[in-house]
Amino acid sequence: MTYATRTRLRVAALLLSLAAWGAQAAEPSAPRYGMELQEAWITLPDGVRLAADLYVPTGAAADAKFPVLLEYLPYRKTEGRGRNWPLYSYFVQRGYVIARVDIRGTGNSEGTLVPYEYSDIELDDGEAVIDWLSQQPWSTGAVGMFGISWGGFNSIQMAGRHPPALKAFVAVDATDDLYQEDVHYMDGIMHLDSWEMSQDLDNARPGAPAYVMDEAYFRDRFDTPPWMLTWKREQRDGPFWDRASWRDREQQITVPGFHIGGWYDGYRDVIPRMLEHAGGPVKAMIGPWSHAFPHDPYPKPGMEWRHEAVRWFDHWLKGVDTGIMREPRFAVYVRDWHAPGPYLDTAPGHWRWEDGWPIARIRDRVLNLRDDHTLGTADAASSTHRLRYTAGTGIEAGGPVMWWGDVAHDQRPTDAFSLVYDSAPLTEALEILGLPRAQLRVSADAPRANWFVRISDVAPDGAVTQVAGAGFNGNHRQSARSPELLTPGEEFPLDIEMHFTSWVFPQGHRIRVAVNNAQWPMMWPSPHPMTTTLAIGGPDGARVVLPVVPKSTRPAPSFLPPEASPHMPGFEPLDSGTPSGYGEISEVKRNPQTGTVTAVATNTGSERHPWGIERYEERIEHSTSDAHPENTSMTGTHRMEVDLPDRKLKWEAKLVFRSDLEAYYYEYERRVYENGKLLREKRWTQRFPRDP
Fold it and tell me: CA 405 from chain center: how many Å?
């Protein structure tokens, strides 16, 4: 079926759905039940048992059956009950059983730790879990999956496997592309993430509250190789990442999927792909949030996404026509201008319904980068602009958590080390929605180089707010699967698709495009001092393509505000740490004499559980050199402590990851103490070459 035919069919279907939009729809399930927690074991075909918490409706008939919703994670269900009880109550009160299952070898589940995220072991086990849930006496046989981040990732992946009992899923802040969009290699460039380091230590802990320290624990968890070492050896796209990536084969996913994203989250690009290509029914929304559930958002405003999820699951798991499939498929929060971060209490904007993706009325607007560093529609005279690579720049572009999507800082310090092009002040407001593109012709006088393109809003007072951006590994110019070194001085084209964005540039503001070669410490620097060039003007001159949205009177969805949730007694956060919950940059030191730059990210947190207090601390020190970018390093230290009535436990880890011109060096050590006495330590040391 051609794209034009698909478009005509979708338009016809939309007209029919809009005609029926006002038809009578059933109300979604109302809150009728209480909730209780039951523990269960799920025995897998090989005899390993997975630990499950079942959140079950109370007040129903003895023989009542309910659909089941699965959240399947390595994040320690028992310690997570303080998060899970309020989150799940909304669904359980409305007639669903929630199963929260620890992945093999994590939390309270048995077995050897899975070798990395989304392995075949995890997903094979997941199929067995879904089958078990469908066959329980309290189950109707219909199972849904949901979750944020990891739970959204494996919801998409399980849907691609089509287990018979899986009838629908809701994926929040998740993607179908493990290489280009997950935290390991953003845009195909090496990234070291706070989560990667903390998870490797968390994986080394036994289940709570018993924390059994026997030989099986040391063998199956503490002594198992760290996940990060596996990820960092896999530097190119290929079979390792393909195993659970569904990008470019979304049409094979026929299980109905509801995708929820946030403009300040790094996993938002999946939404237009799924709307356009998924093989089954799809709904989507994207709002003004970071990596958080929309009922408890940062930044505000939030909405009660669980109401929409209940409408979705009622339709597909209970057979109730809630009207959700007769509404437009896509709800988008249109972002208005705001000042740069790093923090933002409320993101200004408004909601709007769209029919799906692509949006037919969007028109591309081409803006040329010109020799006088302006940006406009007029042709540019041919020229070449040069930029000296400064490895230790780009902190502001990465935001406090260092990934695409954060509420980023004012871009002026990074722009000072970039090629910058500004439009004239806008004579009227301009809205963009989509994935802007940069079409460049570039060269470098070194065999390795990265390029970064950012679009920003320049306010009349000079403040610069990042709107969109992306990076590109120049050695992937032909293929991320078969990287090739650059030929120094040889020009080549780059077509860089930036990450999904929405923005309204106000009248009087300017549009800025900035091009540079570093976004440290978010991305690992390329190793060579160099100068890069950018071709200006002529048929191959640099330009950006903006997806411009004409003014519209389309209707807006009426979402419910967040609803207060009950808390589980005995679980209390004592110190929530950074606003994001991850290590955030708190200190930057730049030595103008040596050209070295150091950035320190920190985070601490603590929680009270019924059995004791858990404390967490991390410190990550990044270092690079403008003169010698090959000598870049990252040192991360992580500590977890648990104070129990009869003993004190502590787990510590230290990672030193560094590079030179030819290779990367990984040095990791892990220790566990009981009452101050060292019980076990383990070290891993490895060198592996840069690829290519």
Answer: 9
